[in-house]
Design goal:
It contains 1 helix and 13 strands; from the N terminus they run ββαβββββββββββ. The chain has about 160 residues and is mostly beta strands.
Length: about 160
C-alpha cells in the first residue's frame, strides 16, 4: 500500500499495485500533490513495477523522481531537465553520490503533454520506460532492494495516477 505525504499533511493513499479505473476524485488529487512522498509497501524487488502518469507543466524547468530508503540512501534519482533535454541519473550510498549517468536515446517529455513512466525492478537493474518505450537501464547500487521503500516526486509536473 502506498501512503502519500504532501508538504501540508499526511494522508492515507490508495493501494499500490491496484490500478485506479477512473479519474482521481478530489481526495485522490490531494494525495498526488507535488511535491509527493509516499511509501512502497514491502520495498522493491525483482518483478515489481511502479507506474507514474502525469502531465508536464506549461513552462517546465525540471522534475525529479527518486526511489529512496526512507530518508537515507537514494537508489535511483532521475532528474529530467528541459532546457538541456537531459535525464540525469544517480544514486547516493552512505552519503556518497556515485557517477552520474546522462546518455539517453531520445528525450520523451514535452510541455503540456501527458506521459507514463514505468520503473521496472529487475534483478540487476531498474528498467525505465516512457510511454511504452524503453528509455534507460540503471544498475542497482543499493542493496537489499527491499530497503528501497519510498518514492519522491517533485518539480514541473502534475501527477494524475500512481500505482
Amino acid at each position: 500500500m502506498l501512503f502519500a505525504q504532501t508538504a501540508a499533511s499526511s494522508l492515507p493513499g490508495s493501494s499500490f499495485g491496484e490500478p485506479l479505473c477512473t479519474s482521481p476524485q478530489k481526495d485522490e488529487q490531494q494525495k498526488l500533490a507535488v511535491p509527493f512522498c509516499g511509501g512502497i509497501r514491502g520495498g522493491m524487488r525483482p518483478g515489481k513495477k511502479i507506474t507514474i502518469m502525469g502531465v508536464v507543466n506549461a513552462d517546465p524547468d525540471s522534475f525529479d523522481i527518486s526511489l529512496t530508503c526512507g530518508c537515507g540512501d537514494v537508489a535511483l534519482d532521475m532528474c529530467v531537465q528541459f532546457e538541456d533535454r537531459e535525464i540525469l541519473r544517480n544514486a547516493c550510498v552512505s552519503d556518497s553520490w556515485g557517477e552520474e549517468e546522462r546518455s539517453i536515446p531520445y528525450f520523451p517529455f514535452i510541455a503540456e503533454q501527458p506521459f507514463r513512466v514505468e520503473i521496472h525492478c529487475e534483478h540487476p537493474r531498474f528498467r525505465v520506460l516512457v510511454d511504452g518505450h524503453q528509455l534507460i537501464d540503471f544498475y542497482h547500487r543499493v542493496t537489499p532492494l527491499e530497503a528501497i521503500d519510498t518514492i519522491q516526486i517533485s518539480g514541473s509536473l502534475t501527477i494524475t495516477k500512481l500505482n
